[in-house]
Amino acid sequence: MRRALAGCLSLAFGACPLGVLLVLRRMSLVGDAMSHAILPGAAVGFLLAGFSLVAMTIGGLMTGLAVAVLAGLVSRFTPLREDASFAAFYLSSLGLGVLLVSVHGSSIDLLHVLFGTVLALDDPAVLLMAAISTLTMAALAVLYRPLIAECLDPGFLRSVGGGGGTVHMLFVTLVVLNLVGGFQALGTLMVVGIMMLPAAASRFWAETVPGQMGVSAAIGLVASLVGLLVSYHGDLPASPAIILSASAAYAVSVLFGRFDSIAARVLRRPHAAHPASQ
Fold first, then answer.
1. Closest CA to 162 of 151, 172, 178
2. DSSP letter at 119?
3. How many other C-beta atoms lie within 10 A of the C-beta of residue 124?
4. Each residue of 166-183: pLDDT tens digit?
5. Contact (CB, 8 A) for 202 and 81
6. Which of the residues in the chain have pLDDT under 70?
7. What are the C-alpha distances in Å from 98 to residues 19, 41, 81, 104?
8. pLDDT digits 0-9 by tens, 148-166
């Protein structure tokens, strides 16, 4: 339980701020596509070395980056939009990965790869997740301004020689790294949940990008703690409990968040109508 909590906290610090940038870029579903894209590489690493942290991490990183590059090339040189090309590649990757694990492993192996084994994290896995989180936070600190500019106005960044393509690839690399680190805990199907659900919820509590990053990380931390406690006391699977805790936080944010939530709109409506009535 302690290792599971440490791993999930590390994941929240690195992945949740990246989720905010994905929301800003309107690339929320791309995160889901990338989480599935790492599956074939992780499956190949599993076939070669079993549940080897190094082999599965390297394999997942290679296939994730390969899918990102190929999807970008297809969208650049064909009329197909980037989200559609990502969808095509991730579906192919998901099918290939499930096939590889199913043919050469057992149903239990497939479940571990798809849904994670957060309660089975060992020290090397926790250290890997902490290292990825540290690298992500350092990279966000250094690249914050060009990342925000590339989110909001990529044409401006290119016009001033800001290296928009390089910044975009560095951002995609960070996303893939966090997904690769996180799938050890939550599996390839659910790791994107801890990246996107807190990020989507943070929009209702903060208006600035730094504020949303901080709130998303806090929601990820609380969801991880609550999910692990619920799974322990309720004898439930830990990974789904964590994701459902994040889902509950998102629902509460939509209903009662400070900005643009349903409650905020209802409370603001009488004040907005008052001058007109006069």
1. 151
2. G
3. 13
4. 888 888 889 989 988 888
5. no
6. 83, 105-110, 154-164, 269-278
7. 26, 11, 26, 10
8. 887 777 666 666 665 667 8
